[in-house]
């Protein structure tokens, strides 16, 4: 059986089988991203905007707002623009990840299933 962790750095990727495919566990990458987001929220550039979200009053529920008028969505979009959303995979890890995904993506016979009649 292939290695459950075909990518060991800079962000570990665990690959597990699920019915009909594969599940990728990218917790190390998510931890890195959350760390970056929190650091940004502690800066003056984003801190005031983040603090302002808690002070907002509910608006008119019938008012249709444009995406630029939505402070939460705007903050999310700007944060995503300032953090890395790519996960590097290097050298032989690329091949190990591809091989593991190929193994899990291969069609498998279901016990007791017969061919189409």
Task: Describe the protein's architecture and organization.
This protein has helices at 27-41, 44-55, 71-82, 91-105, and strands spanning 14-18, 21-25. By secondary structure, the protein is mainly α. Strands 1-2 form a two-stranded antiparallel ribbon. It starts with 13 loop residues before the first strand and ends in a 12-residue tail after the last helix. The mean pLDDT is 84.
Global geometry: elongated
Order of helices and strands: EEHHHH
Mean pLDDT figure: 84
Instruction: State the secondary-structure class.
Output: mainly alpha
Strands, total number:
2
What proportion strand? 5-15%
How far apart, in Å, are the first and last alpha carbons? 33 Å
Write the layout of secondary structure elements.
Blueprint: E1 14-18, E2 21-25, H1 27-41, H2 44-55, H3 71-82, H4 91-105
Antiparallel strand pairs: 1-2
Short description:
It contains four helices and two strands. It is mostly helical. The chain is elongated, with a radius of gyration of 22 Å.
Features:
two-stranded antiparallel sheet, single chain, mainly alpha, elongated, 9% strand, 117 residues
């Amino acid at each position: 059986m292939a290695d459950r962790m075909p990518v060991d750095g800079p962000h570990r990727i665990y690959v597990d089988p699920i019915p009909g495919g594969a599940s990728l566990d990218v917790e190390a990458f998510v931890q890195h991203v959350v760390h970056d987001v929190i650091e940004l929220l502690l800066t003056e550039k984003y801190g005031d905007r983040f603090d302002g979200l808690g002070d907002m009053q509910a608006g008119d529920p019938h008012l249709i707002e444009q995406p630029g008028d939505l402070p939460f969505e705007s903050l999310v979009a700007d944060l995503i623009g300032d953090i890395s959303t790519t996960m590097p995979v290097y050298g032989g890890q690329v091949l190990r990840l591809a091989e593991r995904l190929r193994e899990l993506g291969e069609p498998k016979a279901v016990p007791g299933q017969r061919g189409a009649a």
